[in-house]
Model the fold of this input.
Amino acid sequence: MLEKTNTALLSELGMRLVSGSLSDAALQTATEATPNFAILPWVNVVKIGGQSIMDRGRGAVWPVVEEIVANLDRHKMILGTGAGTRARHVYSLAIDLGLPVGVLTVLGTAVAWQNAQMLQYLLAQHGIAFVEPEGFASLPHYLMERGAVICQGMPPYKLWEANPSLGCIPPQRTDTGCFLIAEVFGARKMIYLKDEDGLYTADPKKDRNALLIPRISVQELLSQDLNDLVVERAVLDLMRNARHIKEIQFVNGLKPGQLSAALDGEPVGTVIFNDGTAPGDAT
Amino acid sequence: MSEQIGAQHVDSRLMRESLMDKTLIAGTEAPVRAILPNLNVIQIGGSSIMDRGHTAVLPLLDEIVANQEAYTQVVGVGPGVRARHILSVGLDLGLPTGALATLAAKSSAQNAYMVSCLLASHGFVYLEAPFVVQLLPAMLAAARGAVFNGIPPYDLWEHPPALGKIPPHGSDAGSYLVAEVFGARSIILLKDVDGLYTADPKTHADAKFIPQIGADDLLRMQLATLPIEPVVLELLIRAKLSKSIRIVNGLVRGNLSRALAGEPVGTLIHT
Done:
């Protein structure tokens, strides 16, 4: 059949898209010359760590909940949860059973989901809803009405998660899922609540000489090729290609006031920023 | 500071460790078991096959049915020209890659649904992503094949690419990832070219055919256009189970059967 497309309706780029190969580098370059519309430019994405916050129970979680409530009138927030120690257990078990990374992603998603559900019980009296990926189209309404929504942090890749270059643990977990939410909505801020003051030169839980890094470019951080990081490596790779999110901030969720300071735009914790190298240029 | 608020841990090998630690990650390297080792993943191209209508699609479906007794087949379907159109409108509106991916996935869902209708009388079912996760093994035991949306369910979480804004994970990547996670016997991509050439054979008469090539060698060649999504090559390099894909011309009768039988038809790209 091969019907002719009515080209009169299409822009020049549109005609090339309809007739050309999508893997053509020249065509991909041409798509760069379109505007970057921010869908929710006023929203802040806040990721609440699994092992670092949720697994600590009341002592860590209740103060975070209080601080979220205190900010509801001033800042709109998408609250994503991490997975934590139960995910580590199930990853360990599943790897031992010889299961593939896609199955581990399905299993890990259930743990982040549990944490999101618990957080939602604690915030329910403030009218905060838990939205699953399929319900994200309603998210703007909840944000306008109540100031925040909760989601589980894992990207919905399920069995379609790609293998890591090394090992068997899903490379794109809740840091990545929350980052991609911030990027696709063109969010105002991407804030990670962890149990450290930010990024260090080594793991501060193990190395007393580790130094806090208050601000570093993603390009420099990648070139240092550190053995350990405060954030999933996938986030750093994606940051170089991001059109909206130019910096991400890591603050200590165990210290009251740090989340509010980050929401207010103060330079607490560690900021990882894109130094402006054009997408695709950085290696 | 951190230890003042006691975390509640479950004992495991990964407990209290940073999952970002390279030494720890390397220590998780382990053999992976194939979940459905008899599965064959067949990908029907959108622009290359579906958009041509019944003259291209029906003979191919006949061939799938003819192989139903001998081979377990699940069929992924690509989106084609309607996805190109909505990409064009979406880009013009300034929408981000994740939004474009969500939109384009509906076009391949339509194509997959049409294929499932045409195969329904032979016992094929259409499975959306959540059902692929929960029901594919049961469906293959009960039903006689399945059709799924080739585009992976990355939706709003699709990666912004290094160059441009077109979603990098299309139906080739999605079909490949289904094969990899289940440890499928084969993954066959049905296109409208005989396989891989040194240039686009539709525009270059002197293009040379490549019957077999390693994914890393192909990446190094940096061809201007490829008959598959470039991201598939990166996925192949990290394969644990599905270590090769075959691209064959789905417009030529018998090619699918030959590919299923393991004959060297089309182009084999391997790790």
Chain B has one domain: 48-216+235-270.
